[in-house]
Design brief:
The protein is α+β, with helices and mostly antiparallel strands and about 90 residues long. The protein has two helices and four strands; from the N terminus they run αββββα.
Length: about 90
């Protein structure tokens, strides 16, 4: 799906409002078979990545911000792909 410039700006505002760049992540050494999510942002050739999967854990004090951003991304995607769903047998 494609997002309009206004939609991208609206989603990016969520990243700004929740200080995405300041979210702290702890890297553990002994974690086995853990799923999760990773959020990548590339804006004006500056790349940011935060991961809450595998050996990476979002710090407790930043969890609310990470979850809000993750939720906004999922909501934006869900809203746009919903119209393409179809039943099949």
């Amino acid at each position: 799906f494609k997002m309009s410039e206004a939609e991208v700006r609206e989603l990016y505002q969520v990243f700004i409002d929740h200080d995405f760049n300041d979210i702290e992540v702890l890297e553990e050494q002994e974690v086995y078979d853990r799923g999760g999510t990773t959020i990548d942002v590339n804006c004006d050739n500056v790349y940011y990545q935060k991961s809450n999967s595998g050996l990476s854990f979002v710090m407790d004090n930043d969890w609310g911000d990470y979850a809000a951003i993750e939720s906004a991304i999922c909501a934006a995607a869900h809203q746009r792909v919903e119209k393409y769903k179809m039943n099949s047998e």
